[in-house]
Description:
The first copy, chain A, is mostly helical and 206 residues long. Chain A has helices spanning 7-26, 29-36, 40-46, 50-74, 79-96, 100-110, 112-121, 129-140, 149-165, 167-174, 178-200. The first copy, chain A, is elongated, with a radius of gyration of 20 Å.
Amino acid sequence: MTKDLDTEGRILVAAKRVFVRKGYTGARMQEIADEAGINKGLLHYYFRSKDNLFSSIFEEAFRELAPRTIEIFESDAPLFTKLEQFVDRYIDFLTEHPYLPAFVIQEINQHPEALFEKIEKSGFRPNPMKLVMQIQMEIQKGNIRPINPIHLVLNLISMCVFPFVARPMMQHMLQVGDEDYTEFMKSRKDVILEFVKNAIMVNREP
Amino acid sequence: MTKDLDTEGRILVAAKRVFVRKGYTGARMQEIADEAGINKGLLHYYFRSKDNLFSSIFEEAFRELAPRTIEIFESDAPLFTKLEQFVDRYIDFLTEHPYLPAFVIQEINQHPEALFEKIEKSGFRPNPMKLVMQIQMEIQKGNIRPINPIHLVLNLISMCVFPFVARPMMQHMLQVGDEDYTEFMKSRKDVILEFVKNAIMVNREP
DNA sequence: GTCTATAGGTAGATAGAC
DNA sequence: GTCTATCTACCTATAGAC
Lengths: 206, 206
């Protein structure tokens, strides 16, 4: 567990762990200092305030999460390829960072205005128009069933992300441990993809 | 806004508002007292501690939310009727209590063990077997496509609940206000239902 | 840069008057 | 039952030695 990082790096790693675990209000500077193996004073030397430190962490978490959410918007691939790639990559990413979505959602729910300001300034401006038009195109060509593109994308993201947000609840109900749930989510990739395909694909038989 | 409730009732209403808004760690006893129009001392007179007060609130919130999640498990209706009723009622309920899911999920993520203990004691024991077997039956009869019943139910719940959990994010991206988003969720009922039907229904043409 | 010590503020909880 | 005043503990942040 020994990190060969400089002090600032160790603080960031520790802070991320604590903030993600406890949220902003629940996190204690003392706990972050302990986890980083330094003392409280030094936290304020590197990051002037708790708020400052949190901003760094949140923006990092958001920046890891968001691009993967919206990369689906920008790609040039055909629709079905896009869906397939998205489900595969997104669930892989969330499996490696299972607590990120709940953290980001929790903080956004509690300080929406403040955080959206930060997000804006960090240059985050997703443009779903390309994907929306691509979906509408496929509908017009008769390749997929008519559906509001926003709902389609929301359905896809919901099915990928929600099981991670509700993970403790799910594991408790299914009575499974971490490894089993990871396996469950892996197998879920194909399930989601087939589910979506069946939902939108048009019958070729007349 | 004047409540003709006794003091205990006013405290509960105020506490629910504050806890749901700020979460356990973020909520302040002072703020709850202010919101109830009483003073701090009285809070401890009625509920011995913050933890005690929180338990009452959380159990109430969970009890409101959970039965509607699992009523789908118990009903005797045919599968498609069940799906239809669930989507309709659940989204109606969440529209009236839009912040409940995020609150429950957030607190469960932060104190899983403690809260599951409370939940167990409150007699919450969902039995999904009935629904699982009903789905397997429909698959065997060839009425719906083969799918792991757990995934099917999870898909349904994800599409209903996630848009509320991620509501601030969604409203920010779609640039819509509360009323528009409520309208969006209303129209979503039919979208989800048709989406699921298409996903699982078997082609009658050979 | 890193530490210890402490200031300054606020939280939850209690005591006691009315 | 309801209030005010206060206790104790803890948190963020700062000051200052090394």
